Amino acid sequence: xxxxxxxxxxxxLSAAAVAQRHHELxxxxxGGLSTLSYNPAVGSSAWGLGGQCGLGYAYHFxxxxxVVTGIGMSFHxxxxxxxxxxxxxxxxxxxxxxxxxxxxxxxxxxELQQARYLNIPLQARFVAGRFYAQAGVSVGFPLAASYxxxxxxxxxxxxxxxxxxxxxxxxxxxxFGVYPGAAGSGALALKVSASAALEAGLRWAPARRWRLYTGxxxxxxxxxxxxxxxxxxxxxxxxxQPTAYRVNNVFSSPSPSxxxxxxxxxDKVALLAAGVMLRLAFVWPKPATDTLLAATxxxxxxxxxxxxxxxxxxxxxxxxxxxxVFVTVRExxxxxxxDICSKVRIERPINGYMxxxxxxxxxxxxxxxxxxxxxxxxxxxxEKHIVVEGYTCDLGTHAMNIYLGQQRADKVKNYLVQKGVxxxxxxxxxxxxxxxxxxxxxxxxxxxxxRVEIRxxx
Length: 458
Prior knowledge:
Layout: H1 2-20, E1 22-37, E2 44-47, E3 49-60, E4 65-81, E5 87-93, E6 99-107, E7 111-128, E8 131-149, E9 152-160, E10 165-166, E11 177-181, E12 184-187, E13 193-207, E14 210-221, E15 270-284, E16 288-290, E17 310-313, E18 331-334, H2 343-347, H3 365-380, E19 385-391, H4 398-418, E20 426-432, H5 443-449, E21 452-457
Parallel strand pairs: 17-18, 19-20
Antiparallel strand pairs: 1-3, 1-15, 2-4, 3-4, 4-7, 5-6, 6-9, 7-8, 8-12, 8-13, 9-10, 9-11, 13-14, 14-15, 16-18, 19-21
């Protein structure tokens, strides 16, 4: 028996999820901080700007939860400078074959690193109203990485350990003195990256089949992507061309500082990116639409509420005639009620609403049930504001119709306030005989025009 109940419960949950699932195919782009993060043993490093772009896919298996993946490309930049720092290259031999250690100080040194990665994320997405958040991991594959160094000036001299003495400060034959250094460039060796990928922000629905996501993202590298061997000295020395100075890249050199002997100049390199993200998503399957005929009111119905013509349903739609009410439903959108604060949820037509007097207590029981639901929506969405508009038919003077329209709007506002909605969030207005819902050519049409509309202020 327990197994049967568990099976039925699981089947019910699965059916509900299937009924509300949908897919999204998106294009995205973002920018901001996008760098190779590292701390050199000597000198300084600086983060750079970059961005990312690509294609995304999301599968929403419930109104609040989904899975996101895709493929994208990211662009990273960073720089390093080793100016004014004593740099030592040991175990060298000069033009005469004598062993010495080269001591150099650089001015104007600047190295720029750039990298492109192909990224595949896998994230879980949570949606609540307009807010969304997604978190997971992203695996990045290096496509290209390079460095470029600017021209610099090197001040050099040599220390000879066997003699415990320094070479001449202006010995051009040995390359000691002040000399210009050449600019250079080359490739960098980086490996696959694993990053924690986070994104959060707001989503919008510019059209039924489109979603716009605007948010902030953070990709935090979890592993070291530097695989270069630290074998080449940072300031190499050529006894055949002792004054032709150049430098290697900081990723593949041992530390040239005597205080950090035996260390790498740059040990760990990690990807780091944070910035603004824009994502435009196409939703499918397309929500179905139905056109329904209006119910006919009974004679004697003079005051009704008319609201916007769009409602949200999950599976089926039932429309029937109700005593003393006129209901018009023009378009029904079949899609999951993902956003309790959305326009269609708050503005959808109310069944069974009738105004007989000047007080909220004069509302029919059916109308009170419907307005209670709207009050709950508004209390769960405290940032939303509404406008309640009262309408009349063309009978009577314009001044009288202004008065009657305002009375109808005030009745709705007073009832919502009694149910806990702050009065400051509700604005009322009388539209009098303006914008008729039907031509004022018969009493039946005039009943349709004696109405109230509730509109959400965006």
